[in-house]
Amino acid sequence: MSGWTVEPFSWEGEPCLAVGSHGGTVRAAVALHGATLLSWRIDQDGEPLELTDGYHDPAELHEQSGVRNGVLAPFPNRIADGRYRFDAREHDLLPGVTGDRTVYHGFARTAPFVLERATTTADSAQLVLRSHGIRPGRFDGYPFSLDLTVTYTVTEDELVLDIHAVNTGDVAAPYAAGWHPYFRLGNGAADIDDLELRIPARTLVRTDDELIPVDGADCRIDLNDLPEMDFRGANPVGQRVIDACYADLHFGPDGRAETVLRDPKTGRELRIWQESGFLHVFTGDTLPRDRRTSIAIEPVETMTNSFNRDEFATAITIAPGQSRRFRCGVRLVRPAKGGTKAPTRKP
């Protein structure tokens, strides 16, 4: 490739950025609202292959329907009953609410971001997006100050996400990050049942009926005792209904854990990697539209409800002036010519 471009555009009035390779073989779109990835496409034999399942229109983006490709901060997934205790103080994210107290996926996904910097080279494009949107008084139950920087790097076959937080306040803050992308490997409306999934995890997090991890050390189930949820081999998703967190990931010599989503019909693979943390998988059975036509494979720093778990007290704490970085990404691997078997990453 000889070069890349970054151009602003309006999506029905929503400010966005378009990234493209010279010749248009790779395209990505990002909304400033929540620093949200809207689309990531790579040409396959002249046909644009959409690899994510993003929002259809700005209304969905603002409704956060399905949290499609959302940046998760200052916490991923749920906080039990919308309450947590930090630094000897009780916090309520839903004060006065007595009905449904479900709180999930943080505030970054709705925060305003601005483009701080866009750079292009012969081989890649990078967007650096900045938000000062998390401040005391803006979000009930979170009286802390964070600056967030979300960096997207797009290459010929890979998209990398870097989430960087700085505690700009004068007290320690609880914080953890993650990403909530929905992936697919075809342009049609086919479901995910025939796709193969490989997850390098040794355990699964045991949860209650509200999808909150149970208390104590027994919250992790050895996958040898739960073969129907074990994807250490390349197993079809099948008709499994999954909304679960995988733990004790295997990190290779390169410092990454790599989850693989593969279409056995075409041999295409998406290799989703992360440098730390846990992996949440959601098969989309409760989405309001297009159920099971894509699968959420979510790299996260901590398990659900980590703000209420003693074992994460140190991991979630950012001191004043301290920063935290979470990196993950996804790469498309095409089948070798003459066959559908793609090369396998060594463990």
Topology:
Layout: E1 4-11, E2 14-21, E3 26-31, E4 36-44, E5 47-50, H1 58-63, E6 70-72, E7 83-86, E8 89-92, E9 114-120, E10 125-134, E11 146-154, E12 158-167, E13 173-174, E14 178-180, E15 182-183, E16 196-198, E17 201-205, E18 220-222, E19 235-236, E20 243-249, E21 257-262, E22 269-274, E23 278-282, E24 295-300, E25 317-318, E26 323-333
Antiparallel strand pairs: 1-2, 2-3, 3-4, 4-5, 6-14, 7-8, 9-10, 10-11, 11-12, 12-26, 13-25, 15-24, 16-19, 16-21, 17-18, 17-20, 20-23, 21-22, 22-26, 23-24
Radius of gyration: 20 Å
Q: Which word captures the global form?
A: globular
Low-pLDDT segments, ≥5 res: 340-347
Order of helices and strands: EEEEEHEEEEEEEEEEEEEEEEEEEEE
Mean pLDDT: 93
How many beta-strand elements?
26
Measure the end-to-end span: 30 Å
* CATH 2nd-level architecture: Distorted Sandwich
Order of strands in the sheet with most strands: 9-10-11-12-26-22-21-16-19
By secondary-structure content and strand pairing, the structural class works out as: mainly beta
